[in-house]
Specification:
The complex is a heterodimer of chains A (307) and B (178). Helix content of chain A is 37%, strand content 21%. By secondary structure, chain A is of the alpha/beta class. Chain B has one domain. The chains are: A alpha/beta (307), B alpha+beta (178). At the A-B interface, α5 and α10 of A face β6 and α3 of B.
């Protein structure tokens, strides 16, 4: 399922949880290649040898000696995880992180990008008023042609042993690609696929209280859509269930995922019917990424998930 | 003046008398905590004044989780107490220089801090909660942090803790796929 994997890292403890998942995936799926990729910094001017380190803001001279030193550091950081892995390649580049990660993903035709939610360790309270998720992650998730697996907390289960995959949908076109990924993953690892939709009663009612009959009607409508859009594409696959809840979508998805002890949440990158090139990471995905105890896969394009 | 005391069994005292109606009027009041105040006391406050659960989208879910936890003995060896704080941070990089003010809720044991994300609710409810000092972080220097006495409003105390508790819930174990 994942022949080539790109693990984008800051080579700091912030990415440790993502590192474990990336190496585990490469090992279990016997991937051809795992690229461990770090962007050194942004060039200060034109062809200048100096780069601005993105974590410290310090200026560094990115010559071959410096690059070798960083590669050596990366090798030491991931020495334990790399043990016995011959298909792992360490790479560095100078440039703007999201652009370089996407360039590398395109060049190496990767099937999956694995990355952490943040490039620096944040206090939980501080995340509230800053960009909820890291800017690099958002930009990569927006433009990547392959699924992006975002890890913000330690993952207790290896991918092949995943037993519950939650697919959160708003029935948008982008969600169709996310569904394909969720379905393929569930089929591949024998996990139960939870097709989940939460309708936001707050935005529906426009100041008026919905009656129970109206809510039930909405639930039935959503169930029918699930059947038409997703179940019809699953053939003989019967290890699934449909759940429709009402409430604030990100709160309900997180609650549902916790209740089901979900191992993976799969969502579309953005949740509205807009041009993918214009889309920012949907607020629902962003809130879910931030709080989810399990990995979240953001899928934006059908390229790598079409059967 | 304009201060309230949050009691260990959930009630709010204003001028020595329990607030029986209109708890929303207390949101801007400065908070003092009763002796023996725990995280359970914080939840009991919402049982007593249910209107306060409307303040944060995660509070109804947290209350559901709370009601399924044991009624006592929810303790955790890893921390001595939880501390609610205010942080004023001057940031020079990345981005434009700016000043951010936010709340934080951390577990403390001696001088070590614990990220609440790694703990489950059923291990924390009977842990003491204290109000900490305001911490002033200058340009990312976490070694020399200035500390000041400060006041916390009831709104800060509810919303700040609710935000952090919404991150609770590390998975316990995996099941084997079929």
């Amino acid at each position: 399922m994942f022949e080539n994997i790109l693990f984008a890292t800051t080579a700091s403890p912030t990415c440790d949880n993502a590192a474990k998942v990336a190496f585990d995936l490469a090992l279990k799926y016997d991937s051809k290649k795992l690229y461990v990729f770090h962007v050194l910094g942004v060039p200060s001017r034109g062809f200048s040898p100096f780069v601005k380190d993105l974590r410290t803001g310090e200026t560094e001279q990115a010559d071959s000696e410096y690059t070798e030193w960083v590669l050596e550091e990366m090798k030491n950081t991931y020495a334990t995880l790399m043990e016995g892995m011959e298909n792992c390649e360490l790479k560095t580049r100078v440039g703007v992180p999201h652009a370089e990660i996407l360039r590398m993903a395109r060049e190496k035709d990767v099937d999956l990008i694995v990355m952490g939610a943040h490039t620096r360790q944040e206090e939980l309270g501080a995340t509230r008023y800053r960009d909820v998720t890291g800017r690099t992650m958002r930009k990569v998730a927006k433009a990547a042609r392959c699924p992006v697996l975002i890890i913000s907390r330690p993952c207790t289960t290896c991918f092949k042993l995943f037993s519950h995959i939650v697919f959160g949908t708003d029935f948008s076109k982008a969600a169709d690609s996310a569904f394909l990924f969720a379905y393929q993953a569930a089929k591949d690892v024998g996990a139960r696929l939870h097709l989940f939709h939460s309708f936001d009663i707050g935005s529906l009612r426009s100041g008026r209280v919905l009656s129970q009959a109206e809510i039930e009607e909405k639930v039935e409508e959503a169930k029918k859509k699930m059947e038409q859009k997703y179940v019809s594409k699953m053939g003989n696959f019967d290890n699934y269930e449909i759940e429709i809840w009402e409430g604030i979508p990100y709160v309900e998805i997180l609650k549902f995922a916790r209740e089901k002890q979900s191992d993976l949440i799969v969502m579309a990158h953005h949740t509205k019917e807009i041009d993918p090139e214009e889309a920012e990471l949907g607020s629902t995905v962003e809130q879910v990424v931030l709080r989810s105890a399990c990995p979240v896969a953001s899928v934006n394009h059908p390229d790598k998930v079409s059967e | 003046m304009n201060r309230i005391t949050l009691m260990r069994y959930g009630s709010i005292l204003q001028d020595g008398k329990p607030v029986t109606s209109e708890p929303l009027m207390c949101l801007s009041s400065g908070v003092d905590l009763d002796e023996g105040y725990t995280l359970r006391s914080w939840f009991q406050m919402f049982e007593e004044y249910s209107v306060l659960t409307d303040l944060n989208p995660f509070l109804p879910t947290l209350m559901e989780q709370y009601s399924s936890c044991p009624k006592s003995g929810c303790l955790f060896d890893g921390v001595d107490h939880f501390e609610f704080r205010k942080i004023v941070e001057m940031i020079g990089f990345p981005g434009e220089p700016r000043l951010e003010i936010y709340n934080s809720f951390r577990g403390l044991k001696n001088h070590d801090e614990l990220d609440p994300r790694s703990v489950r609710m059923e291990h924390t409810l009977d842990m003491p909660v204290l109000l900490g000092k305001l911490k002033h972080v200058v340009f990312g220097d976490k070694a020399d942090i200035f500390e000041f006495e400060t006041v916390y409003s009831l709104f800060e105390f509810i919303d700040g803790i609710a935000w952090e508790l919404s991150f609770f819930g590390a998975p316990t174990q995996c099941e084997i796929g079929r």
